[in-house]
Amino acid sequence: MKRDRLRLMLPLLPASGFLTLFLVVPLLLLFSFGFLQIERGEVTSVVTGATYRDILGDPFYRYLFGRTFLIAVSVTGLCLLFGYPVAYLYVSMRSRWRVLILTSVFAPLLTSALARTFGWMVILGNQGVLNKTLIWLGVLDQPMQFLFTLTGVMIAMTQVLLPFMVVPLITSLQSIPHALTEVAANLGATHCQTFWRVTVPQSVPGIAAGVSLVFVLAFTEFTVSVLMGGGTFAVVSVNMFEAMTTLLDWSRGAAIASLLLMSSATVVTLFNLLVRRLTPWMHTGR
Amino acid sequence: MDAHGPLAPRGRQRTIVWIDLLGAVLLGVLATTGIACLVVPTLIVVITSFDTQEFIGFPPRGFSLERYREMFQSSVILRAAQISAVTSAFTVTLGVALGVPAAIALVRREFRGKALVTALLLSPIMLPGIVIGVAMLVFYSALGLRLSLPLLVLSHVVFTMPFIVRLSMARMERIDRQLEDAARNLGAREWQVFRHVVLPQLRPGIAAGAAFAFLVSFDNLSVSLFTAPVRQRPLPIELFYLMRFDLDPVVAAVAALQFLIALCLLLFVARKLGPSGFMPDA
Amino acid sequence: MTRAHWWANGIAACALATAGCGLFGTSSSGSREFVAISYGGPTQVPHRRFLADPFEAAHGSVKVTLVASESEDVVAQIKAARGGSPYDVIPLGEPRQIMAIEEGWVERTPPDTLPNLDAVHPYFREACRGHGVPETYSLLGLAYNPARVPRPAAWTDLWKPEFRGHVGLTTPASNLGFAFVVLTAKLFGGSETDVEPAWPQIHKLEPFVVASNPTALAQLFERNEVAVAPLWSNDAAVLASRGLNVRFVQPAPGALILVSCLDVIRATAHPELARDYINRAVSREYQAQAVQAPWFFGPTNRQVDIPAEAGDYLPASFDDFSKLMRLDWDAGTRVRGAVSARFNREFRR
Question: Cβ B232–C23 below 8 Å, yes or no?
Fold first, then answer.
């Protein structure tokens, strides 16, 4: 019996062993590193709560986490605002159009995040595509500053993360039985009513998955923030990068990373609990 | 009009039509903006890569392959690309070796704690790359190891393996068990069943997972930033510093070429899998 | 799978393994790689062409890799790498030089290994404090775009309304940004140790763009994001040479001079090579090239003449040095960490 069990588990051992050693152990180490005092890569004192206390007691870090949270929430909201219509369009189109939409969703995933940031720098610059278009249209009479502003970073971040919202939404929208919307229409519901009362509630799992994923990615986003935010753009990930690489304060960096991970996990867990509570119809046994 | 049913009173009907129309227009506008937003930056990068201006700008002033020539003459970029390619190739090889057996076992076997193991194997997808990177750096340094390419490969396996596991599992779930039973009844040994029945059917899933893992690894910045050896920087790190310092237009050429290669890889997988293969759970 | 497939896979695997071994093994075998930190962007050209290339030619099997760096990342990596250093030589501006000497990771190079140092003006030798060589100097002045803003005559002109909304700065993580904060403090009644007066004054410059390093700041002129900024003479000269409408002024009461030292990193695996490399950096041959357009790297070697077209960017002769401002970097370095942290909080965005 015991040997059978072992044989059963054998193919799983390498993979789970690997991830335990190279993911679980490092993460535990990361949490504990925040309690060490490290100077120039050498541990000088063991177990001090000072680093965590410093960070948690510092109003700057409270501001930093609050701000990063707000940016992540706004970007997630924007992704949902634009991503849902794209996914909805996808499922209501015929297959030739579907390929086109799918390609456009995957195109950014194929272009490296660095390259897309580069693209946005060309678009959002003072002499960039957006400003030139707006001036040509007469909306602006002189260029508006987008680069190195919160607006610019959020625009780029939304685009970079949009595919991660669209993919789970498409999956979820596709699984809605066609009969449901037909019944609604036959009962005299307008398209709008069907959309809000049938389609949206039925796609809650997709929304929850997309929102969770995009939130985590936005909350910890680094590339766009550091390249498009300018020298003093304040978000947690950039601050952590600076602590690790330029200040060489590893215990602080580790502590910030741990707090980043814990706070994003907490937010996502609370969000999913909330979704469960608010949409009981999704979870009652059918 | 009749589609709205006889129940709606006539006076309200017109408003309803208007609301529907407004909804449709709003939806269309949002969706079009969304799609345009998705495609435009990539297009801009491709267009900029052929520009003749000495610094980046728009609209382009001419057409030339100067930036591509510059790219192929830059030993730094070529070396970085080579480092990235080799790192990603080893990452995928190791990821497949570890991930595919696990995926098969997770689909075909029942045991206590299966949910936990599945969660462990898929968890890196939901973990922020930058945290994984810092954790790995701390881990290696605690072990007293100096950063090197083998360590970089191991770090990349951590966050790419879940894609291989997930896509292989998705494929495995669709494979007909009866075929295997038939082979067994005909006297095939266990490894023969695997080799001649399971593997050929599973291969598209592995290919998709491997291709995806390769792309994710090749494009990774957040983990490499902390775990790449200083003297052997992979391409994304090199591009990152190029962009951070002087937004060298050669970046556009590298990015455009990388996009083209990735597109080919994706089309290759699409042919193997059919379009439905893109959607992990469809 | 067909036989052909097996062959194809086998060949691919072998190719992969060979490529991998080649890469993984580079650090231990083959030609010696010499890694020199250099400047970012086009200002790297003189290092490559007139220093690294002749150096490679003289040493045969040595290959020089130049790594662009102006941020503290590289310094952090050197300090973090236990044992061997990933780099061999590094240019450091005065404030960094002082810190590096204190932290003890640059070599006190024996003068007898640096024969070219004899031709270097003592003014510069002093600045490097017996570590490395004074490779060049740059002036910190104001770069501006004459098409968009008037010519600033004095540092304090920056606060005039004509320049509002056109100003670019860098973070004090770079020498440029740090020097500007200290300079502002001094202009408004502070000093190297008392930078407090700088903060309200810099706030008065808002809205401004903050770049993460000088090269990135220079780039912002190209894209018209800024029209006036404190900038190094070399970066401004390179911009102008590209046909951009950018001029450089040495504002009253004077431009600020910063000496750049080229140091041997203590943990280098090639100390002899490194010493030869920095010795070449103060040679007449190298500096006579680096001082030419479009770079105008200030020569420290007395035998090198300053070309006439360098007028805006460099003082005409060593006698004119009295007109330049110098900061007391010993005092400045002590407040640097605090200045950097304060700046990031004051101007967080």
Answer: yes
Given pLDDT bands bounded at 50, 70 and 90, which one contains residue C27?
Answer: very low
Residue numbers of the domain that contains B25: 2-48
Total domain count, chain B:
2
Check A41 against C79: CB less than 8 A apart: yes
* Shared domain check, B184 and B88: yes
Q: Tokens for C168? A: 């670019």
Chains touching B, CB cut-off 8 Å, 3+ pairs: A, C
| A186 reaches C (C-beta below 8 A) | no
**The CATH number of the domain covering residues in C139-257+328-346:** 3.40.190.10
Contact C173 A246 (CB under 8 A): yes
Q: Is B120 found in the same domain as B12?
A: no
- Cβ separation of A170 and B279 shorter than 8 Å? yes
B219 and B85, same structural domain? yes
Q: Do B231 and C33 touch (CB under 8 A)?
A: yes
Judged by a CB distance cut-off of 8 A, whether residue A170 touches chain B is yes
Please write the tens of the pLDDT for every residue from B153-175.
999 999 999 999 998 998 888 88
Contacts of C344 in chain A (CB under 8 A): 232, 234
Q: Hey, what domains does chain A have and what are their CATH numbers?
A: 59-282 (1.10.3720.10)
Tens-place pLDDT, residues B46-100: 888 888 876 666 777 788 888 899 889 888 889 999 999 999 999 999 999 999 9
The domain ranges of chain C are: 32-137+258-317, 139-257+328-346
The reply to whether A142 touches chain C by the CB within 8 Å rule is no
**C59: exposed, middle or buried (Cβ count in 10 Å: 0-12, 13-18, 19+):** middle
Shared domain check, B26 and B166? no
ipTM of the shown complex: 0.86
Residue B60 maps to a domain: no
User: Is there a cis peptide before residue C207, judged by omega within 30 degrees of 0?
Assistant: yes
Alpha-helix runs per DSSP H in chain A = 2-9, 13-19, 25-33, 50-57, 59-92, 95-110, 113-124, 129-137, 150-174, 178-186, 191-194, 200-202, 204-219, 223-228, 236-245, 250-278
**Residues B149 and B234 both lie in one domain:** yes
CATH number of C32-137+258-317: 3.40.190.10
Write out pLDDT tens, residues C241-250.
888 889 999 9
Would you put residue B247 in left (φ > 0), alpha (ψ -120 to 50) or beta? Answer: left
- Burial of C102: CB neighbours in 10 Å, binned 0-12, 13-18, 19+: exposed
- Chain C positions in Cβ-Cβ contact with residue B85 (cut-off 8 Å): 19
Shortest distance, CA A112 to any CA of chain B (angstroms): 6
**DSSP string computed for B69-91:** HHHHH-HHHHHHHHHHHHHHHHH
Same fold for the pair C32-137+258-317 and C139-257+328-346: yes
Q: How many contacts does A have with C, using Cβ atoms within 8 A?
A: 72
pLDDT digits (tens, 9 = 90+) for C174-210: 889 999 999 999 999 998 889 999 999 999 998 888 8
Q: Is residue B102 part of a domain?
A: yes
Nearest CA in chain C to A151: C349
Q: Which two tokens stand for residue A62?
A: 């409270």
* pLDDT level of residue A3 (50, 70, 90 thresholds): low
Of A86, A185, A222, the CB nearest to B130: A222
